Amino acid sequence: MRFEEVIGQRDLAAKLRKGANDGRIAHAQLFVGAEGSGNLAMALAYAQYVQCTNSTAEDSCGVCSSCRKHQTMMHPDMHYSFPFSSNKADVASELYPEWRKAVSGNPYMNYEMWMQELGAENKQGNIPIKECHAIIKSLSLKPFEGDYKILLMWLPEFLGAEGNVLLKLFEEPPQKTLFLLVAESTEKILSTILSRVQMVRVPPLLQADISTKLQTDVQLAAEEADRIALLSAGNYIRAVELAHNEENQYLEAFRNWMGFCFQKKLGQAAAWADTYGGNGREQLKGFFLYSLEILRAVMVHPYLAGKSGLNSDEEAFVGKFSAIISSHAQGELLYNWFNKASYEIERNGNAKIILTDLSFKVTRLLK
Ligand SMILES: [Zn+2]
Description:
By secondary structure, the chain is an alpha/beta fold. Helices cover about 55% and strands about 5% of the residues.
């Protein structure tokens, strides 16, 4: 993809282009940015730019032979590596068709979306030793065309200790070989790898950039787009999720659930937990992110009523809810419980159990 297609991040893109044009291209770079920041999109645009035979100071040309191959993700000197589950393939290249489809469809996808695309939602992804050996082999070949051979590794967090077999490549790479690693955080990356890469930090997206994109791509009105951009905290995945949720089914669900808890209808709360807990992981993650947003608004309601970026339905609910909460400490306790539940959901905890447990706790608290 071209830089032009990347959402926002104009300063970073300019810096990357300038570096490339000045001949400063570090052979191993780590693009680090939180979910929804566009770290993968940025690395793809950078790779295309470096390999473009007719680039300008502004962007890759989009029409040269190299660019056209990039746009279909079929460039012979561009290799991809990513986590996958062992029941799907031995090496990443066997999954290139699925990878191309997923990335062209949404270069802002996260790990869960990718595993879903693979039909391996409940399996553990990994970048196994066989894949590391395949990388070493493919990079030992001469480039087919152009200058650079590039390996883009998405989510090197999934590289276990066996990833150390790649160190020699990082230290003494074959000529004109680039490693672009794309990670969400540096915490889970092997320290031996971290010490050998140049860091490229991809910040969360600006509200204004998310809003503009929502207006053009999802056809939201400016006011609604601004509101969602504010709630999404720089995460484009979350923004799209919220935008596709205009009828606000999350609010509906949260309101019903809390209603049962408040009226001590434990049977109904448990039944709700059982049904809602059957939703997909992404939906549940979205629900918890949303609930946390509402609970945060409940806590600051006495000071910030009307200025929270919520719509009128949400504002009304938050008003009522904050009247039920007896103290700030109680609100904080609720928030912490939801935060913990959200964390457990993200780590594949049993949603029905987590929601049921939360129902009991909230009912006891809200009496
Ligand atoms: Zn080009």
